[in-house]
Amino acid sequence: MGQSLIRLAKVSARFVADPRRTGGSMFRVHRDTRFSKDKSPYKTAVGAHFAHEARERDQDKSVPGFYLHLEPGSALGGGGIYHPDPTSLQRIRDRMVDHPDEWKTVRRAKLDIEGESLKRPPAGYDPAHPFIDDLKRKDLYSTATFSDSEVCRPDFIDAFVESCARTKPLMVFLTKALGLRW
Question: Does 78 fall in a domain?
Fold first, then answer.
């Protein structure tokens, strides 16, 4: 993780690798098998989340971050925010409405913004708003996929960091919306 974090600091120094064994940047390798028919004890993938430094001060805080997922046949990397708390999501939506030029900058970056969406517009927002599809989102993130051969190349960390750098317009917007430093 060290090399990727040094390179990620060139995108923004505000995102950190948390070395703690529990609640840190690396996701656990053990599966929760309590309610699963598949009782295999380990995941077949590894993941790491490099969250905004504000998360270190408040573990329950919804903050944007960069993400890396490695699994045979399915690797991806990028950035955004996943399942933010209702207050944070409200702040993001309000910033889209109150600062439309900032959100237009994100959309001009040609990012494929992903995430779960509501079927109907959220309460309090105009259904005819030009950004209504984005306002319906419950998550806002953008990722790039990597082939197994790309992941195994010596310069893979550079490709991962580049996928994070491409999300910069979205990440800048999210940090501003949540009152965080970029």
Answer: yes
